[in-house]
Amino acid sequence: MTGERRGIGRLAIRHALLAALLGVLLGAGFSILQIGVDYRLSVESERREILQMMAVMREPAAQASYNLNEDAARVVVQGALAYAPVQQAMVVNDFGEMLARVASDRMRADPPSAWWTRLVAPTQNYTVPLEFGPARKRVGELRVVTSQAPRVERFFELAWRDMGLNVLRSVTVALALGVLSFVTLTRPLTAIARRIGHGPSTTPGIEPLAEAARTDEIGQIASAFERYEREAGERARSLEAAARALAASEVRYRRIVETAGEGVWQVDERGLTTLANEAMARMLGMAPDQLQGRSMFEFVDAGDRPAVTALLRRRESQDSERSEIRFLRADGHPVWAEVSSCPIADADGHPIGTLAMVTNATERRRRDEELRATNERLTSMVIDLERHKSDMARIAELNELLQSARTEAEAFEVVRAAAAVLFADCAGGFAVAAPGEAMNVVGTWGDCACLPDHYERSACWAIRRGGAHLQSGRHGIRCLHQPADMTGALLCTPLYVDGVLIGVLHLHRSPVEPDDDGDAADFSGAVQQRLEVFGEVVKLGLSNLRLRDSLREQALRDALTGLPNRRLFDEALPRELTRCLRAHQPLTLAMIDVDHFKHFNDRYGHDAGDRVLRSVAQVLAGSIRADDMACRYGGDEFICLMPGMTAHDAASRFELALQRMAALAGEDGLPAEPITFTIGLASAPDCGTDVTSLTRAADAALYVAKGKGRNRVEVAAVVTGSVPETSFAQTRPG
């Protein structure tokens, strides 16, 4: 029997070891699968964020690459480094030249090698082609290098911890099951098997099994075996043994009732308690003897008493019923229970009471409530995610529209229209920074009464603080631009780019009730987050628009004189010539050359020469009409385009210009000796109907004027047929 006991023990140990092994394998397997899914999700999330950031910077990077503007390119790559994972950013033009390259200090802080680099690349490269112009010509590339070390190390640290916990949990549960199996099953069953091996005995006074004192199934098995032994021995000897067996049977059933995990409750036809086991009494917070004789309705919630009354009245049908009833414990706390009831009848079949099996359902209902609440939260989260997705789509459309806007007025209208949709439940406005301390409101939506047309920067607390400012009811400081009688909540968000104020977004929400102090109209976190993202797109869009205008202005203006340069003139001359010829109007072209300019540079220095050129430019710009164009053609040469003006009228204007120029000698740092220039005029269609003929005629007239002694105006003669070659066949005197 000892070997048999050890065999059963070894069986329990084998079961425990198999359970532990299975727990380890399942824990490790599920952890590995979850690690793979989580890693792919983290990689995809970072990739989407990087590509979205690069899409925002694509247009300014393309403009910088097209214009070979290293400063603008450096601004773009510096903006890329604001995103934490980015280690390095660069802009390369179409010729392979590096316009700008910036590396983050984090690049040197990352470990050069780690064990995970054998599985995952330590860095990730992203490249976006840059295209510019209507034809979307490729002008270069925007490259970004991100570090995966922080994300991967943090990810593997959490993964190892979760895997270890899962494996440890599985092993612990398996070992606990093995120990429990040995203590509760193997050892008692071994003792019982040993007694069974001896066979039934009729000898009185046999030592009872120790396991018979237990109140669980093992104890029931041991007690049943002992009863079997007693009944087998005593049945042959006397009827008294049968009576004792009957008494033992009654005790057995009472033990079953007392030790049952579910509550057993028996009441008579009036609802008074006749039997209640320990589980039922414990469920109601009382002792079993305290329940005897007490009415069932004392422990039923008032709302469920009609249902219990109907349940007792239906006992005559002799059918079992199941229902869920709310009971009240002795301490007043509610207890939900599932009640399975059946009627009790006497020997004649008349109902004398009801027997109910009562199962505590409080924990199940609590779980059901938690599941219901979780489902409601998930539904709300899905609605919020759908709203967020819709908002992000509108904000992406706003970004595209801002990138396509050509003027700030168009951009302001785009911002106003987008805000009216994104913040439809709020009123608001958008103010932009004007020169000085003024703020101009350029767009409003909704019933916006919270903003004047203009206000000072010091009137808004958001500008003072350099961040969002919320004023709601009695909370927060009111901005000076708010009307005194305004109620509700006002949220002001300033828009800064590189420390420069672009504008301020204002949102106003009226209170739900007229008597509210404003707190009920406060903004939710989702609205504030949406406004923050909206503001980021608006300020970047306006900043890019201004950057484009600045780059265009730099490309088409002469830096020294402020006049349009030759590139702008070459674009304007064919257009204006075609327009004037179509309208049968004259067009006069003036070629101007500063006399003896090299002499001023050699004698007075280049600074004085620059002042001479600026003075000539100012005199020329002041001598023509507002619709005319004066340009610096190159070096000491200027050219003027005067649509709708004859050469005779233009000559009169330039004669006055020569006089004004002579009067400036010695003023504002200019040389004391006279400053003169020579003008050659040619008019279309008298001197030609195409750009080449008109330019040659004006240049020839300038050559003639210089031959006559300079400091004069010469009008080209009317040409019939082809224009004679005069100017480009000879060298113009200096």
H/I helix tally: 18
Helix content: 40-55%
What is the β-strand count? 20
Sheet bearing the most strands, described?
6 strands, antiparallel
N-end to C-end Cα span: 130 Å
Uncertain runs are 1-8, 514-520, 722-734
Q: If you average the pLDDT, what whole number results?
A: 78
Task: State the secondary-structure class.
Answer: alpha+beta
Number of domain modules: 4
Remind me, CATH topology of the largest domain? Beta-Lactamase
Strand content: 15-25%
CATH class of the largest domain: Alpha Beta
| CATH homologous superfamily grouping of the largest domain | PAS domain
Q: Within the largest sheet, what's the order of strands? A: 12-11-10-15-14-13
**CATH architecture title of the largest domain:** 2-Layer Sandwich
Provide the gyration radius in Å: 48 Å
Described by the principal axes of the CA atoms, the overall outline is elongated
Task: Report what the structure shows.
There is one protein chain. The protein has 734 residues and is of the alpha+beta class. It has four domains: 2-166, Beta-Lactamase, CATH 3.30.450.20; 260-360, PAS domain (Beta-Lactamase), CATH 3.30.450.20; 384-544, 2-Layer Sandwich (Beta-Lactamase); 557-715, Reverse transcriptase/Diguanylate cyclase domain (Alpha-Beta Plaits), CATH 3.30.70.270. It has helices spanning 2-66, 70-80, 106-109, 149-198, 217-234, 239-259, 278-284, 288-291, 305-313, 362-404, 408-422, 461-465, 525-556, 566-582, 597-604, 606-623, 647-663, 691-707, and strands at 86-93, 98-103, 123-132, 137-147, 263-268, 273-276, 321-328, 334-345, 351-360, 427-433, 438-445, 454-456, 469-472, 489-497, 500-509, 587-594, 629-634, 637-643, 677-684, 713-715. The strands form four sheets. It has a six-stranded antiparallel beta sheet. The protein has a five-stranded antiparallel beta sheet with strand order 6-5-9-8-7, sandwiched between helices. β8 and β9 (351-360) form a beta hairpin. α1 (2-66) packs parallel to α13 (525-556) and α10 runs parallel beside α13. The longest helix has 65 residues, at 2-66. It is elongated, with a radius of gyration of 48 Å. The termini are far apart. Residues 1-8, 514-520 and 722-734 have low confidence and may be disordered.
